[in-house]
Structures are given as structure tokens and as C-alpha cells.
Amino acid sequence: MGDALSRKERVKTLRVHASGMTIHTSLATQILNGQQEALKAENIKNENLRGMVKQLEAKSDETLYFMDRIWVPHTGGLRELVLNEAHRSKYSIHPGSDKMYKNLKEFNWWPKMKGDIAIYVGKCLTCSKVKAKYQKPSGLL
């Protein structure tokens, strides 16, 4: 009689070859189109820029940047798209508002960004269930 390890069935392992994967996104073109739409005279009031339009500078691809961060306009639901990608993607997995702001502020900018992120995370049902203050003990202590 042998032990359990000696009787274990030997299975040949599978080999997986990793290949390079390129992801193409249309977010950059959507932001460029949204910026052009937002700067029209009838839409500029909705952007809440308050004179910061003078500080926006165009880069080589004609996209507008504010202090080396891309300006995400309010028009076209682009902010919501960026927030969804930063919060619910496979790679971020519901970060809190502080971590999400830290990650987004490196490359993106819009007025009242931190407040918008806090409101967005506050509305997330998954995040609110995970917080310790909302969890109740299972039985008598």
C-alpha cells in the first residue's frame, strides 16, 4: 500500500503561449470630438470652465490639455465613460474614490473632478456593500 501522493494520477500539463495583444480604443477621438463640440458658443456655459479656456493648450493631435492632462468635456457623456472605465474595468475592480482620483488625475482633468468621482463612487452599490460600516454582525455577540 502506498501513500496518497504515490497513487496520484500524473496528468501532463498544458502549455500556453502568450501573444502580444493590442487594444485599440476610440476614446481619444471621442474626446477630441467632444472638445470641439463643447467649445461651441452654445455649449461653453455647460462646461463650467470659468476662464480656464485660455489655459487649455492644443498638442500635436489637436487635443486640448490643461497642465499636461487631457481635458475631458462634459458633453457626450465622456466623463461618465471615463469614470466607468476607471471604476468597473477588469483591472481596477472598484477602487475607492481616493484611489480612483489618484489614478485619473495623472492623465485626465475637468473642473470639480474630485467631487464628481466621490459622487460616482458613492452611487456604486457594490462599493457601498463592501464598506465595514454597512456590514452587520451575523449573530449574537
Per the CATH scheme, the topology name is: Endonuclease III, domain 1
* H/E series: HEEEHHEHH
Main beta-sheet annotation: 4 strands, mixed
Q: Can you tell me the CATH architecture?
A: Orthogonal Bundle
- Number of E strands: 4
Q: Identify the CATH class.
A: Mainly Alpha
Question: What is the end-to-end distance?
Answer: 49 Å
What strand line-up does the widest sheet have?
A: 1-2-3-4
Ranges with pLDDT <50 over ≥5 residues?
Answer: none
Structural class: alpha+beta
Described by the principal axes of the CA atoms, the overall outline is elongated
Average pLDDT for all residues:
80
How many H/I helices? 5
| Domain unit count | 1
Kindly state the percentage of residues in helix.
25-40%
Radius of gyration: 23 Å
Strand content: 5-15%
Structure description:
The chain has 141 residues and is α+β, with helices and mostly antiparallel strands. The chain has one domain (27-131): Endonuclease III, domain 1. Helix content is 33%, strand content 7%. The protein contains five helices and four strands; from the N terminus they run αβββααβαα. It has helices spanning 27-38, 78-88, 97-104, 113-122, 125-130, and strands spanning 57-58, 64-66, 69-71, 108-109. Strands 1-2-3-4 form a four-stranded mixed β-sheet. It is elongated, with a radius of gyration of 23 Å. The protein starts with 26 loop residues before the first helix and ends in an 11-residue tail after the last helix.
